[in-house]
Amino acid sequence: MTIIEIACIVVGLVISYLVGSISPSIWIGRIFYNVDIRTKGSKNAGSTNTIRVLGLKAGIIVFIIDVIKGCLALFLANLFVQLFLFDSQLEIYNIAAAACVVLGHVFPIYEGFKGGKGVATMLGVLIYLYSSIFAILLAIFIIVFLIWRYISLGSITAAICFPITYYIHSVYWVEDLDPILFIFSIAVAIFIVYTHRKNIGRLLKGEEKKFKFKKTE
Asked: Which one, out of 3, 6, 57, 175, has a CA that is 20 to 30 A from the CA of 198?
């Protein structure tokens, strides 16, 4: 691999992180509401807390942007390497780019490395990498949410079901299990559960707030 190719890989990963560091909840709150979303509600820079603090309209905009940046980061990252990476190499590269964009969301360089939990951004990554599985995980999330009205529980459940769904889909449907992507799906599940560890504590104590489609602050 040449120095130029290595440089392209590094640039692609850095761009993924920088795109992930775009924090719409913080920027919208600051510019239009004169509020730092990280000081209100659950203090999380995500769409759920945005809805609680700023309202449904702002929350939906934040959610859409966070999902788009997950897809956009991988798309831009691939522009730098698609001419010289083989399929197996590209898989590993995409996983690295996915990790970078999510880390950018959780630890945004523009905002003192204090961001959100990365669920919506990871959703964008899943749409890009696992489009056939996305609908299943979305259905799981919606069912759990509609029954119990907890966004966090829906996110955690969908995350845990991700590697299970990928395994079943790969082995019994397409009959081609990619070990790299399977390991990545397990890593995603662990990461999402870890970022929701406080929510899990509140759920176990019965203190987690149920979601409402309006401001509560």
From this structure: 57
